[in-house]
Hints:
Elements: H1 3-16, E1 23-25, E2 33-35, E3 41-46, E4 49-52, E5 63-65
Antiparallel strand pairs: 1-2, 3-4, 3-5
Amino acid sequence: MKLSEYAKSINELVKKHPDAEVVYSIDEEGNVFKPVIYTPTAGTYSNGEFSGEEDSEDRGVIAVCVN
């Protein structure tokens, strides 16, 4: 999913539910949910590894980590 698509969806939800708590599922089946505690971080993502923007300036931002 691209950030612009994600942002469009989030913006629509904010209009309807501006004070909703933000949570995430810890697994694909949705067995346990926890609150989101970090703001999104820009960086790179390759081979299952994420590096924050400060660690990946030479490669450019190609991903955003949402938690």
